[in-house]
Design goal:
It is built from one helix and nine strands; from the N terminus they run H-E-E-E-E-E-E-E-E-E.
């Protein structure tokens, strides 16, 4: 089959998929508080890196517990560091029971802190299957708060 025919055939196969519009999924908002328990793990994965367990208890619109691991690097005492983490959240979100994973990416430097926490695609189970979203963490007077914008199919 000549190259031009092959390209046209491939385009014909994907064209119907590209023409379909994704369904609008309504966004929801959940908020509440959480406690966090972090402990160092050893051995460290490499010199200059650290590893921790991370366990949370969440209250509010999300009543859940989580277990995960965090890897950090840099020099937090000097204000230049970062971490990545993944945690499995299990419980009830606005009356729906199941679990999902959260993936963290955070840095701090002279410009201040930057953090992104998202739901790992495909990680939802039970009534939370298909969940998408992002979670924001804030700390005020030593108390941890979350705001969670999410969508369910």
């Amino acid at each position: 089959m000549p190259l031009a025919s092959t390209i046209l055939f491939a385009l014909a196969l994907v064209a119907p998929q590209a023409a379909t519009q994704p369904k609008e999924i309504p966004m929801h908002h959940a908020h509440g508080t959480f406690t966090v328990d972090v402990h160092p793990l050893s051995p460290s994965p490499a010199e200059g890196l650290s590893r921790y367990t991370i366990n949370k208890v969440m209250h509010g619109d999300l009543e859940a517990t989580s277990k995960g691991e965090m890897f950090g690097g840099g020099d937090p005492k000097q204000g230049a560091a970062g971490y990545v983490a993944i945690e499995l959240v299990s419980g009830t979100l606005d009356g729906k029971h199941g679990s999902f994973a959260l993936q963290h990416f955070a840095t701090m430097n002279g410009d201040g802190p930057r953090m992104e926490v998202i739901v790992v695609p495909g990680s939802g189970t039970g009534e939370l299957k298909g969940i998408e979203g992002a979670l924001t963490i804030r700390i005020e007077n030593g108390q941890h708060f979350y705001d969670f914008d999410y969508a369910l199919p």
